[in-house]
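Changelog-adjacent note: as of this version, every example in the card shows the full chain rather than a window. The one below runs 176 residues end to end.
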Amino acid sequence: MQLLLDSNPLVKVIPGLMIWTLIAFAITFFVLKRYAFGPIQKMIDERREQIRRSIEEADNARAEARQLLEEHRKLMQEARGESEEILAEARKTREAMEQRMREETENERQRRLEETRREIAAETARALEQIRAEVADLTLEATSIVVGQKLDSDRDRELITQAIGSLDFSRLEEER
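Full-length structure tokens:
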């Protein structure tokens, strides 16, 4: 193994070469430290700062997103509450309108029923008046036949009309 080490020029210790290598290393280290390590370290620090700011921004964005999500949930809950209130109000309005329509329909039915009763009463009165007139005429004719003479005077007609007027025709209505 010693042979291998002696034959390889890179492994041999040569004092002149070693000194020049150390001087070249020192110069290179000095140049790198002065001109390269500072800017490289500065770029690393800037990158580290940029990453820190990005992390802070991400944390802020996450916190803001959580806050927005919470606000969104609250708004949705409020909207649900408002929609329930609107629906309840709509139901109340519908029920009130239905009640009003029922009342109006009932009032209209009562009005028509009353109007029909008045018409029936008026028709009944007209029919009774017509019956009275016909009974008066028939009575005049019957009396003329019984008496044997024609009764035309207005006085006789008036007496018969009074007699018929005193008759109670309500019994005819009750029988129906």
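Structural remarks: The radius of gyration is 63 Å.
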